[in-house]
User: Which sequence fits this backbone?
């Protein structure tokens, strides 16, 4: 599982900082999460292969998470894309993109498939045999969802050495992989758990931006390996959180701590602060495993 | 008259090249012409003061001329803008911007005034006592206008030395400035032209992007000081011009030559070519006064 931060600063693009966008590589998928203005340039800069992006998840329709999408779709068209592109986002996203394509008479020559959400409950957006993606309802000024990316448990793998040890014949291997117990040469039943190995741990990533402090996300993201949680402000500006519906670094850490996540990644920083290290310091007073997102940074989990 | 090129490459933004946008400083106005994705970052990079932009002219609704506008408007809002912002562009631009602001619940706290055009004839878009802006109907895949920026003729200025020489009394100066003839001490009439100096030449700038070769623009732009004319292709790719409705460098030069402009500035280059110098070489075979636009380049006329 590999996370590339394309942009992680709040509000407006600047010369050296970019609004929110990130790429999650998981089980051979390349999921694009949010798409602020300039995302396509960041994708080029960090050499993400455009054609591998098949699913784009948009948390909400504020410009700093969304205004790069029309241009990215146009560029896909100019590059001669033929593969389906799936867009997941709040109701309204289809109307907006469709209007812009219509005004430019720039209909895509590839299937552009919208999956609009409007539920306030967690919803399954995407699923295949390897991974599932659910919404995480957040609390922002407009309708907003985070996203939970979760690998599926792989089946237990056959322990050939153990099978030999217990005298279990090869002819049983397929059934054992499917979960059956084995039978030894002597006719004794050998429990499946003794003939198989634990699968690699299924990994998970939760993305929560933008949101005010919202404890009800905790049960949805419990024990995820990595939580990206916005921290627009420090506690010194906590009074701004209520009006703007953002969080402080401390609040992000409180969510991480309650959900017992493996690692907290902070981002969506207001540019009013001298150094983003201040966010880490504040969060670590509550939760020790803190990383700072930054444009171009890559996390391998 | 000062022209800052923010971006001048065709199609998609790239790591080191930007789609079309430019700023024209004329008679204390700062006119923004087109607004491809990333324009607000280019404005910051070249230190153009956001608050001085009061009029934005959009030639057509293809993404590489327009997709930076929603983000720029949002940024104006975040910066606390209070002044009116006037947007001139094809019919549909108001619906698109309004929908994006509505979806983001991001209404501006400054007056946002749209001036939509749909005429195929040249139209006056803006006028004050110093400058006028007209559309230049172009020939592109969708409805597109270039823009003609023209300073107004200043009144002739009083030649005090001449007035003294002819013995014309000070009491007549105001009327002479308004165009009246003078009367000398001896009672002789002194023609106005002998008592006044030519005003500084009124300057003009024509912007023509995107367009196929279109001779009917020639009478509209005759004798302008500077013509920006797109040259997406070289003659080796002239066969692409008909389908895409773009011009070659040679065609741009032919327009410049017929219109007897002072200087031709080329831009909107396809990125397929090794060097933009090739565009200049091709154009100069037809017309000698050729300059190459490039991102960040400033022209003083």
Assistant:
């Amino acid at each position: 599982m590999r996370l590339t931060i394309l942009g992680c600063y709040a509000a407006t693009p600047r010369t050296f900082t970019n609004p929110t966008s990130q790429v999650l590589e998981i089980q051979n998928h390349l999921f694009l999460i949010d798409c602020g203005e300039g995302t396509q340039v960041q994708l080029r800069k960090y050499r993400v292969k455009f054609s591998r992006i098949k699913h784009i998840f948009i948390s909400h329709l504020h410009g700093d998470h969304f205004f790069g999408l029309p241009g990215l779709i146009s560029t896909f068209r100019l590059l001669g894309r033929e593969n389906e592109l799936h867009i997941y986002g709040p109701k309204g996203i289809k109307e907006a993109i469709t209007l812009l394509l219509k005004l430019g008479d720039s209909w895509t020559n590839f299937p552009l498939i919208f999956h609009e959400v409007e539920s306030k409950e967690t919803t399954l957006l995407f699923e295949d045999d390897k991974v599932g993606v659910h919404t995480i309802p957040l609390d922002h000024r407009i309708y907003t969802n985070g996203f939970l990316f979760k690998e599926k448990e792989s089946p237990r793998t056959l322990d050939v050495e153990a099978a030999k040890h217990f005298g279990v014949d090869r002819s049983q291997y397929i059934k054992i992989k499917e979960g059956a117990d084995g039978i030894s040469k002597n006719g004794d039943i050998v429990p499946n758990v003794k003939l198989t190995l634990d699968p690699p741990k299924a990994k998970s990533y939760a993305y929560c931006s933008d949101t005010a402090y919202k404890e009800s996300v905790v049960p949805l993201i419990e024990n995820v390996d990595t939580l990206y949680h916005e921290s627009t402000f420090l506690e010194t500006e906590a009074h701004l959180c209520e009006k703007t519906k953002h969080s402080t670094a401390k609040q992000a850490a409180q969510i991480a701590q309650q959900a017992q996540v493996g690692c907290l990644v902070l981002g969506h920083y207001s540019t009013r602060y001298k150094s983003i290290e201040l966010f880490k310091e504040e969060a670590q007073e509550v939760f020790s495993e803190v990383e700072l997102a930054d444009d171009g940074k890559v996390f391998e989990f």
In short: The longest helix of chain B spans residues 93-103. Residues 139 and 211 of chain B are 5 Å apart (CA to CA).
